[in-house]
Amino acid sequence: MIHPNRTYTIGDITITKIEEMRLNVATPAFLYPSWEAAELEPNLHWLTPSNMDAGTGNLIQSIHAWLVRTPEHTILIDTGSGNDKERPRNPIFHQLNTPFLQRLAAAGVLPEDVDYVLHTHLHVDHVGWNTQRIDGRWVPTFPNARHVFSRAEEDYYGSPDSHNEVNVPSLGVFEDSVAPIIAAGQAERISNEGGDYLENFTFRPTKGHSIGHMSIELRSKGEVALFTGDVMHHPLQVVRPDWNSVFCEWQEAALASRRWVLEQGAEHNLLLFTPHFAETSAGYVTRQGDRFAWRYE
Ligand SMILES: [Zn+2]
Q: Does a structural domain hold residue 16?
């Protein structure tokens, strides 16, 4: 089910989810190598029906981009998985044909309207719509956009260091979805320490899931939100921040970054925009002893 898109407001900025895919494929034990079956029962009341398929026990997730409209700019946070990409070793992303651009158009935005794309990181499901295959070539989808990402991500995913068996989901991604952006002169790098960008954004380093992963803070008129990126893949990790996903590449750093995001979120009551939670994909965390609780907004 496609959840009806709601538009959020932070000060004078609006945020709308542009959905690409709903996933119902990962078992908890696959997504979380530290999964404990004893966690199922006490959490079942909120897991089903929208966060877990009651029939299969699979976790329900989403892949989407966040459309951010400021008075001056039209911005995407990450770009999903893209159409026509060759991912033979990763069937979820292989040769997709989704109406992502039609959904963007339904929100009132054409590709040429996008003037910035801010990337949390450069994994397969976050850079895909950077490019489209036209006449056999990968060309930028958003011809007027500056694509902003951390230098560490480019250095690593553009190098042979990342082109190995451990990084199967990333094989070919840099070549078809990031390199054409760089070749077109549309790339802009953020230092590995993060920093302010435009008037309303701050890149916050949250490495671990990937080498130069960034969460992106948004501020307007005293209100603050955080695009978390892949510090979490499912609200189960709000309850169990000590569980890394199978896709987290640097384990210790991923744990620390997840805890930082949850603590910031709880302490400052931040509206969190996640890349992979189901339902609205946005919400709040509150402290519950050593753990946290999640509430969709
Ligand atoms: Zn992801």
A: yes
Asked if the structure places residue 1 within a domain, the reply is no
Give residue 230 CA to ligand 1 midpoint distance, Å: 5
Q: Which residues surround ligand 1, an ion (CB under 5 A)?
A: 125, 230
Distance 275 CA to ligand 1 centre (A): 6
Nearest to 218 by CA among 180, 270, 253, 175: 270
The token duo for 126 is 């976050």
Domain that holds residue 224: 7-296
What is residue 224's predicted lDDT score, i.e. its pLDDT? 97
With a cut of 70, list the residues of the chain below it in pLDDT.
1-4, 169
Q: CATH number, domain at 139?
A: 3.60.15.10
Is-cis flag, bond preceding 275, omega within 30? no
pLDDT at res. 89: 87
Q: How far is the CA of 96 from the centre of ligand 1 (A)?
A: 16
Give the Å distance between the CA of 108 and the centre of ligand 1.
Answer: 25
Q: How far is the CA of 63 from the centre of ligand 1 (A)?
A: 7
Q: How many Å apart are CA 241 and CA 183, to the nearest integer?
A: 39
In this prediction, residue 1 carries a pLDDT of: 40
Looking at the domain assignment, is residue 57 inside a domain?
yes
